[in-house]
Write a structure and sequence with these properties.
The protein is of the alpha/beta class and 180 residues long. It has a single domain, classed as Rossmann fold, CATH 3.40.50.1010. It is 34% helix and 24% strand. It has helices at residues 10-21, 29-37, 59-70, 94-107, 124-132, 148-153, and strands at residues 3-9, 41-49, 75-79, 81-85, 88-92, 113-117, 136-140, 156-157. Strand 4 (81-85) and strand 5 form a beta hairpin. Helix 4 runs parallel beside helix 5 (124-132). The radius of gyration is 16 Å and the shape is globular.
Length: 180
């Protein structure tokens, strides 16, 4: 049975969920991961994001959400940081953490298939290197956030637009807002 590792760019997923389904949509992460795994053996799902600054009104809810994710079986939360810029904050360290984990786990032969939930074209070269090691890479994100270069490099691209979002809606109010 194929071994799958899932790498989720949290900011990219959240942005797509808000654009596609609205800011009140709450995702059932367990069902989402199950759908991405597609009957294969899950190694782990890695979720990457950066905590919001304490002065942000959503910071407490975001931290509660990250704490919730840390309790989901087979999910690892990896955090970058936000750096203040003149026009706000910019996420730092997240993309490099994703790249390192995809490569590190490929070199360790920990998975057969990587599922990359991101539309960031900068990952295309990482995908190529992992493929050269004999691994398969699937890429998924919303069409509006998709990089043609990344989608073309991946062994398989499937848009999140086509997912059964009503089935993936959290049934009960979560402990915190379900940021993607």
């Amino acid at each position: 049975m194929e071994r799958v590792a899932i790498f989720i760019d949290g900011s990219n997923l959240y942005k797509g969920l808000v654009q596609h389904l609205g800011s009140d949509y709450r995702l059932n992460f367990v069902e989402f991961i199950t759908l991405l795994t597609a009957g294969r053996r899950l190694l782990r799902a890695y979720y990457y994001n950066a905590p919001l600054p304490p002065e942000d009104p959503a910071a407490k809810a975001h931290q509660s959400f990250l704490n919730y994710l840390k309790r989901v079986p087979y999910v690892a939360v990896r955090l970058g940081r936000l750096e203040r810029r003149a026009d706000g904050f910019v996420e730092k360290g997240v993309d490099i953490q994703i790249a390192i984990d995809i490569l590190r786990l490929a070199y360790a032969d920990a998975y057969d298939v990587a599922v990359l939930v991101s539309g960031d074209g900068d990952f295309a070269e990482v995908v190529r290197v992992v493929q050269d090691m004999g691994k398969q890479v699937e890429n998924t994100t919303f069409h509006a956030l998709s990089s043609h270069r990344l989608a073309q490099q991946a062994d398989r691209f499937y848009p999140l637009d086509d997912f059964p979002w009503e089935r993936l809606r959290a049934q009960t109010p979560p402990q915190a807002p379900e940021e993607g």
